[in-house]
Write a structure and sequence with these properties.
Largest sheet: 7 strands, mixed
Number of strands: 14
Distance between the termini: 19 Å
Order of helices and strands: HHEHEHEHEHEEEEEHHHEEEHEHEH
Strand content: 5-15%
Structural class: alpha/beta
Helix content: 25-40%
Radius of gyration: 21 Å
Number of helices: 12
Bound molecules: pyridoxal-5'-phosphate
């Protein structure tokens, strides 16, 4: 079976993880600190706080922005459900806005109609690695004192206006889940422009302690910690960070390879021009974390039938990005979102991974192309 994604992991990661184990310190410690510094430098942001997932990074970002009960946060419904859930964790109300068809991201035009006097933040998702237009969103939100939090879960290695995604964000959250390019198994990173916010987030990820467990362990003297506010256990382990340091070094190669493979998909699928595929926006470059394709409204084959055909041909594809407002957890929570509904019902994600071969890619493209052309000619495709 051709997998939809396979992380690019090797001996180096295995040795780095073994090194952490052999060191005797496997919880959050020196390797986490080293990973934070390296990640902040790679993104070009002053501070990075390693956490257990992007979900916990988003949770902390909302706390950092002072969001709580009675507040509204505008989010795309078209996102992994963690984006909306994080708003609920702080007792605030997620308000769903529609997205642009070609980037699958929020825009000022989709967000502005959903803003009220209670709107305190917008979570701007770089969907599937596609950079969102942060400057345009800031131009809308800044004058209204609405914080823009970047959900860059999928976007490590993407760029926005010639800088890494996240570089210009007040607060940005990244994921290191294995569906992403850079993986630590599970894991996440919160980046922050403000040092005092980053320091508070470091305390909050560790139960609100004013001295970390690692620092107490290293001290020659007994250190009695204090708990300054109610915090969480959102820590990353040193084993994960050791893997992350290697993966971060490999990230530019991963992005370059994915961009070559994505261009190839675009060429291979160009025989069916009515199909829209992921492509760079004018202001940036995507890392192609997911290579999605959108079937046209008059598609001769339905998305789910195409997924079934691909599975029968040994290809593991996925439906496109989910829409939270169509899930029972958020039922009845929004006004119509036509672009979101079209994208979630008629798009799919094709396999794309570092070690994918040309033959595998041709196989995927030929199954898709023949399904669409044969169906159009009225032939049976099942
Ligand atoms: C846009 C978005 N936000 C948040 C998350 C949650 O990331 P994690 O699994 O690291 O918590 C994901 C995961 O896929 C995502 O795609």
């Amino acid at each position: 079976m051709i997998p939809v994604m396979r992380p690019w992991l090797g001996e180096e990661e295995a040795e780095a993880a073994a090194g952490a184990v052999a060191s005797g310190w496997i919880a959050q410690g020196p390797r986490v600190e080293e990973f934070e510094e390296a990640f902040a430098a790679a993104v070009g942001t002053p501070h990075a706080v390693a956490v257990s997932s992007c979900t916990t990074a988003l949770h902390l970002a909302l706390i950092a922005a002072g969001i709580g009960p009675g507040d509204e946060v505008v989010v795309p419904s078209l996102s992994f459900i963690a984006t909306a859930n994080s708003v609920r964790y702080v007792g605030a109300q997620p308000v769903f806005a529609d997205v642009d068809l070609t980037t699958q991201n929020l825009t000022p035009e989709t967000v502005q109609p959903r803003m009220t006097s209670r709107t305190r933040a917008v979570i701007l998702v770089d969907q599937a690695g596609m950079p969102a237009d942060m400057d345009a969103m800031r131009a809308l939100c800044g004058p209204l004192q609405v914080t823009v939090i970047e959900d860059a879960a999928c976007a490590a290695g993407s760029s926005y206006r010639s800088r890494p995604v996240g570089a210009g964000a007040e607060l940005a959250a990244f994921s290191f889940h294995p569906r992403k390019l850079l993986t630590t198994g599970e894991g996440g990173m919160l980046t922050a422009a403000d040092g005092s916010i980053a320091a508070r987030m470091r305390r909050l990820r560790e139960h609100g302690m004013d001295v970390s467990a690692a620092d107490r362990h290293l001290s020659q003297q007994p250190v009695i910690e204090r708990y300054t506010e109610v915090g969480f256990n959102f820590r990353m382990t040193d084993i994960q960070a050791a893997i992350g340091l290697i993966q971060l070094r490999k990230l530019p190669d991963m992005v370059a390879r994915r961009r070559v493979l994505a261009r190839r998909y675009q060429e291979l699928l160009s025989d069916i021009p009515e199909v829209l595929t992921a492509a760079d926006p004018p202001y940036g470059e995507t890392n192609y974390q997911s290579f999605w394709m959108l079937l046209p409204p008059d598609s001769p084959i339905g998305r789910d039938d195409l997924l079934r055909l691909l599975a029968e041909a040994g290809i593991s594809a996925r439906r496109g990005i989910m829409a939270a407002h169509l899930e029972p957890a958020y039922a009845g929570a929004t006004q119509p979102l036509p672009v979101t509904e079209r994208l979630t019902r008629h798009s799919l994600i094709l396999p794309l991974f570092h070690e994918m071969t040309e033959a595998q890619q041709e196989h995927v493209a030929s199954v898709v192309t023949s399904a669409l052309t044969h169906s159009r000619q009225g032939l049976s495709v099942s």
